[in-house]
Specification:
Shape: globular
Strand content: 5-15%
Radius of gyration: 23 Å
Number of domains: 2
Number of strands: 11
Distance between the termini: 82 Å
Helix content: 25-40%
CATH superfamily of the largest domain: Type I PLP-dependent aspartate aminotransferase-like (Major domain)
CATH architecture of the largest domain: 3-Layer(aba) Sandwich
Number of helices: 14
């Protein structure tokens, strides 16, 4: 006999039936369930074998991550994507998929500190070696590949962190493709400024925490590329527990809505702010691809026709002066991230590149006085007034 009158305890414990509706929500809903109800064992087999579409456990996939991955893949002109718990999660999952004991990973010089640490320090413990090349000079990658027939992956950044060196995507992509080695490009600093996959890149990585999320309330990453390779990366990310959660995926989708407007606005503001910093007598050097003084300016003009992005770096002339400057800023906070709607500054030597070899940092130009600026949506005159008074104080 069916039991039509369950107890209060049973009613509280069981999920309610979904409401009947002939309409669909305009905004994507947040779906926080960590596990999914499946009709029977045949359906479980079908889901695992790829014969049916759906979800069973959130670490392996959920609707919000699937929607976000699809949006990012289409944005970059890729076949598929996977959402990870952070930008480093996406980078680590990709390298773990392609690297192996005795294999070599080739890194562009000046790469983000944690990426370098992952390969040169952590994966070295498991027999993975690495080499270096200059991302603005494709011939240096060709030389590195010739010297390393065991190369499994090439890693570069569209714009390097924090020196904003420009990767010659077409040149580097052609050399990697000729050698049959996948090229992964970290595109975090340059969403919408160019399309790396169309220029020869195999995989594109984003820290969605930054410019795509756009509001300093997300910790998430993603990698997009060929469907078969993304499937392998997705399996590794699930096994290592590196996949992203539903709420942050939903937030990143919301942030992506205004990305084109933010990229356009911050690129214009950053160019003007960089020009003023470059002309200030108390700034030792200013690094911004839109400046004629930048070593990769000609390449940047060709590769980024619509603007040069939101990131600026400048040297205040030593750690003490950098410290006085950030303390003197009245409205611009020191915050070790980037991409927020409000302008922030960071100090690479004590944050993103902390613990790196001091001699290497000096050689690359990551000096104790270097300050990185993430330009937000404020009026440029308000930003300059704050920087100008802080420079005088410093």
């Amino acid at each position: 006999m069916p039991h039509d009158h369950p107890s209060d305890a049973t009613r509280c414990a069981r999920a309610p039936e979904p409401p009947r509706t002939i309409s669909e929500p305009l905004a994507p809903p947040i779906q926080l369930s960590s596990v999914y109800r499946i009709a029977g064992l045949d359906e479980v087999d079908a889901l695992f074998d790829g014969r049916a579409e759906g979800f069973f456990y959130a670490r392996d996939g959920h609707p919000n991550a699937a929607q976000l991955a699809d949006k990012l893949a289409k944005l970059e002109g890729a076949e598929a994507g996977v959402v990870c718990a952070s930008g480093m999660g996406a980078i680590a999952a990709t390298i773990l998929t392609l690297a192996e004991q005795g294999g070599r990973v080739l890194l562009s010089e000046g790469l983000y500190g944690k990426t370098t640490t992952l390969v040169a320090r952590e994966l070295a413990r498991f027999g993975v070696t690495h080499g270096l090349f200059d991302p603005s000079r494709p011939e240096t990658l060709r030389q590195a590949l010739t010297a390393a027939p065991d190369a499994r992956l090439v890693v570069a950044e569209t714009l390097s962190n924090p020196l904003l060196r420009v990767c010659d995507l077409e040149g580097i992509g052609a050399v990697a493709r000729e050698a049959g080695v996948p090229l992964m490009v970290d595109h975090t600093f340059a969403p919408l400024l160019c399309k790396p996959i169309a220029m020869g890149t195999t995989l594109v990585v984003h820290s969605l925490t930054k410019l795509i999320g756009g509001h300093a309330d997300v910790t998430l990453g993603a990698v997009v590329g060929p469907r078969d390779l993304i499937a392998r990366i997705h399996a590794v990310a699930s096994t290592f527990g590196q996949t992203g959660n539903p709420f942050d995926s939903w937030l990143a989708m919301r942030g992506a809505v205004t990305l084109p407007l933010r990229v356009e606005r911050t690129s214009l503001t950053a160019l003007e702010l960089a020009r003023r910093l470059d002309a200030h007598p108390k700034v030792e050097r200013t690094l911004y691809p839109g400046l004629v003084s930048h070593p990769d300016h000609a390449l940047a003009k060709r590769q980024f026709p619509a603007g040069f992005g939101a990131m600026i770096s400048f040297d205040a002339g030593g750690r003490d002066r950098a410290d006085r400057l950030v303390r003197a800023l009245r409205a611009i906070p020191l915050a070790p991230s980037l991409g927020d709607a409000q302008t922030t500054v960071s100090h690479p030597c004590t944050t993103s590149h902390r613990g790196q070899d001091p001699e290497t940092l000096q050689r690359l130009g990551v000096t104790p006085g270097l300050i990185r600026v993430s330009v937000g949506l404020e009026d440029v005159e308000d930003l300059w007034a704050d920087f100008a008074q802080a420079l005088e104080f410093a």
